[in-house]
Write a structure and sequence with these properties.
Number of domains: 3
Number of helices: 8
Number of strands: 26
Shape: globular
Distance between the termini: 20 Å
Oligomer: single chain
Length: 487
Amino acid sequence: MKTGKLFSNLAYGFFFLFAFALSSRANNVQITGTSVSGSNITFNISWENSWYASAAPANWDAVWVFVKYQDCNTKLWNHVNLNTSGHSAGSPLQVDTVTDNKGVFIHRSAVGGGNIASTAVTLSMNLPAGTYNFKVYGVEMVNIPQGDFQIGDAAGSYTYNSITINNTAQTSGLTAGAISASYSSAVPATFPMGYNSFYCMKYEVSVEQYADFLNSLTFDQQKNRVVTDPISATGSYAMYSGTALQYRCGLSIVTPGSNGAIPAVFGSDATPGTPNSVNDGQDIAMNILSWFDLAAYLDWAALRPMTELEFEKVCRGPQPRVSGEYAWGSTQATAVYSNALNNSFQSNEVPSIAVNNGMCAYNLNSASSIYGPMRVGAMASGTSGRLSSGAAYYGVMDMSGNVWETVIGTYHAAGMTYTGTLGDGTLDAIGFANQATWPTTNSASNGVGYRGGAYYNISPYICTSDRYSIINSSVNRSYGIGGRGVR
């Protein structure tokens, strides 16, 4: 999401400075032309490859839209609470509100597919009078319908028992013996198992999304969400030391901060020179994240962590389990490596190898820092199907390979206190998520784990039901760890 120039206006006793945001994603979400009148904020939204399907998988894609405002006196950014009504969108879109008013879902109002042309949206904000800047953010999501699904696949030692998650399981809970005698705690009914409907991010958090997040934090908050001190020189890479690009993560300091006072400005500079250029890797999956980094991003975006049961629901949907299957529902896989790409680091980065079944960034089997994840959604095109694009059942991308998906697991009892509490758009003073029931201890037994494998992993780590990195996990930053959120 790139911020355009500021301009000002006086309306209904509020003095607003407007920042209009352009958000570039794998399906090219664009939010432009932001203006404010009274308590209403209006903008145009467009994106590509949208759908609303009446046949299986009978779901739709959407954009989770939320707004941040900056008090021009304090310079601090805060999350906008929206009103319960007063929102509108032009055809073919509709606006769905949420109970906590932290944002809205914008999606097609009727069955159809294709690109969404620039369409006007107006949201009604609940704000006190003041002088503010605004930024509008959009995150692509996929609707995951309510319904039964199977877990486990009987492949290898690290998998769930082959059972079905249904309404009874979700409302009554599961014993450890029922779900996995050796590798699970008892799962209470309050734990999100995936039976109920929810939204899942279509893609892993990208470098650009993480930079947008950092750019709304205070200096003290930023310091805990990166490796490199925010006072470091322009061009310093944010997640590791050294002047050479590592692990394809171009997140860097564009403008240094002032110690404890003025926050740094972050961007992407994968090809050193002018940051945020067309070949600077803004759409590469963000890696080198810890649990605390991802949790902070999700809290800030008013999303929440995914559970490992929800991970299997997103991948498999209502289809029967296949032993050793990947997220696209088969055991076929075609390895794609980050040294074999066309348009490297650009928004149209794609594999240079011929399209085949189960295209997936995996199997590199190398820890060399010259390799890394790919652009989110790079395997998909306007004409690809589930198998060739490596898509999960409902249309979520990169659930196998690329970067590990950070999830709340069922192996450690500490994870069972998680109830699906949603992020509220705010962090604590030093940049940590502060939501009740989210894991907070810096311990491998805090309930956090990983699913789906990364670009360097071999099978079975990228298999849908493999739980090795739930049982053997850590909370530290690693070059293969990223993630996404749900709501």
